[in-house]
UniProtKB/TrEMBL annotation:
Keywords, sorted A to Z: ATP-binding, Kinase, Membrane, Nucleotide-binding, Phosphoprotein, Transferase, Transmembrane, Transmembrane helix, Two-component regulatory system
Residues spanning the membrane: 38-57, 63-84, 91-111, 117-136, 143-164, 170-191
Reaction(s) catalysed (UniProt annotation): ATP + protein L-histidine = ADP + protein N-phospho-L-histidine
Source superkingdom: Bacteria
Region annotation Disordered: where it falls in the sequence: 1-20, 395-426
Residue ranges constituting the Signal transduction histidine kinase subgroup 3 dimerisation and phosphoacceptor domain according to the UniProt record: 216-282
GO terms for cellular component: membrane
Domain Histidine kinase/HSP90-like ATPase: 328-416
GO MF, one example: ATP binding
Amino acid composition bias (Basic and acidic residues), ranges on this chain: 9-19
The protein's name: histidine kinase
EC number annotated for this UniProt entry: 2.7.13.3
């Protein structure tokens, strides 16, 4: 039993070697092969041209008695026409039609009675290939033109060489090439439909991305306006009540405070109008206070109750009351979006949230491991929203995979820097 086990263990790597060698060979072939449909078509047509030319010239020079030099030139035009059709369909039609008319005229009179058909089999294959290539690449109309002119060239050859029995051969040739043309039309139509669907999906994804980005910017703007409106309300209240709270104010000071209150009141009215424009019809005014740094533990607990393995670590001495509301809202939104992405794209993976309140900035790190279940797809709109918020504060954001196969989000939100990185005036 032990000997059998040892033998089976030795056979395992030996069985794996051919598989690994095959995978390595296939990967090298993929690297060598051209990328893109056009490059692949050029490669295929080049190989077909070499094969057809190497067969067509010997057949016509021996079986048909055609002159070698002229046959080589005409055969080259015939087999190169499919390759030329990739970029220049009209030139390809001219090349093949001219060669299709002239090649039968090169048949010697001695070989004419025994010739099965003015075109050899390689020439017929070249006809099928050029019709298929033009139709596949440029649509049914140019393909139909080549099919019609090629068939007319065959009829012309049959009329000019009455000594060759060509009636049945002409019918068979026309039928076969017609079938090739129809198949090429169907294939080209299917590919074009697939390309249109792909472009439509890309356009839809782009529009969705733009819409989500606009919505995120609007939400950021609403958050900022809510903060400014709240501050303006405080200014208006303080200025209006200054005469009652502060003793000994001169009439000039009272008038100054009244002007400040009036200006704040006017600005507050304009701010509320802007908020009405920024909010959509189905959005009610947010009466609850905006979330901040102190609300992140509750957010983590909510995600944890949903079944996710989330841990939160907080450090730093900076108080939330000393940090601007804009920074706090942005920090909350970034953690919220990072947790949402982790749960969506790496379900079942542990998530670690680190929140550091340094004297000069809030530092956020959200790290999740590799998921244990299939993840849902997404277009990365949340990351764009993060970048918008970080750029607004003049901070930095780094996102990407880590060595463990998970994903890490690192954000730094400075307290007193604007989007250009300059110090804001107090």
């Amino acid at each position: 039993m032990r000997a059998k086990k040892v033998r089976s263990r030795k056979e395992g790597p030996e069985k794996e070697r051919p598989t690994k060698a095959l995978q390595h060979t296939l990967s090298r072939i993929r690297r060598i092969l051209p990328r893109g449909r056009t490059n692949a078509l050029i490669l295929i047509l080049s190989l077909v041209a070499v094969v057809l030319y190497s067969v067509l010239v010997p057949i016509h020079t021996t079986a048909y008695g055609s002159p070698v030099a002229v046959t080589m030139a005409l055969a080259l035009a015939a087999v190169v026409a499919p390759l030329v059709s990739v970029r220049h369909p009209n030139l390809a039609i001219i090349l093949f039609t001219a060669s299709a008319v002239l090649i039968p005229l090169m048949i010697s009179r001695a070989a004419a009675p025994s010739a099965p058909w003015p075109w050899s089999v390689p020439m017929l294959l070249a006809f099928a290939v050029v019709v298929a290539a033009i139709t596949f690449r440029h649509g049914w109309r140019p393909g139909l033109v080549q099919f019609g002119l090629g068939s007319a060239a065959g009829v012309t050859a049959a009329i000019m060489l009455p000594s060759i029995p060509s009636g049945n051969s002409l019918i068979v040739t026309t039928s076969v090439i017609g079938g090739v043309y129809l198949v090429a039309v169907l294939l080209a139509g299917r590919l074009r439909l697939g390309d249109e669907l792909t472009r439509e999906r890309a356009h839809t994804a782009q529009e969705q991305s733009r819409r989500v980005l606009v919505e995120e910017r609007s939400r950021i703007a609403r958050d900022l306006h809510d903060i400014v409106a709240h501050s303006m309300s405080l200014i208006q209240v303080q200025a209006s009540t200054a005469r009652y709270r502060v003793e000994g104010l001169s009439p000039a000071a009272i008038a100054e405070f009244d002007d400040i209150a009036g200006t704040a009141r006017t600005a507050l009215v304009e701010m509320r109008r802007l908020l009405g424009v920024l909010r959509t019809e189905d959005q009610a005014a947010e009466l609850a206070p905006q979330q901040g740094l102190d609300d992140i533990p509750a957010l983590v607990e909510t995600v944890r109750r949903a079944g996710a393995d989330v841990e939160l670590a907080q450090r730093g001495d900076a108080k939330a009351s000393d940090i601007s509301q804009t920074v706090q809202i942005s920090a909350f939104r970034i953690v919220q979006e990072a947790l949402s992405n982790a749960v969506r794209h790496a379900p079942g993976a542990p998530v670690r949230v680190s929140l550091v309140r340094d004297p000069d900035a809030v530092r956020i790190e959200v790290r999740n491991g590799a998921g244990t279940a299939p993840s849902s797809t997404g277009a990365g709109h949340g990351l764009r929203g993060m970048r918008e918020r970080v750029a607004l504060l003049g901070g930095s954001l780094e996102t990407g995979p880590d060595d463990s196969g998970g994903w890490t989000v690192n954000a730094v939100l400075p307290y007193d820097r604007g989007p250009d990185g300059s110090e804001e005036d107090g």
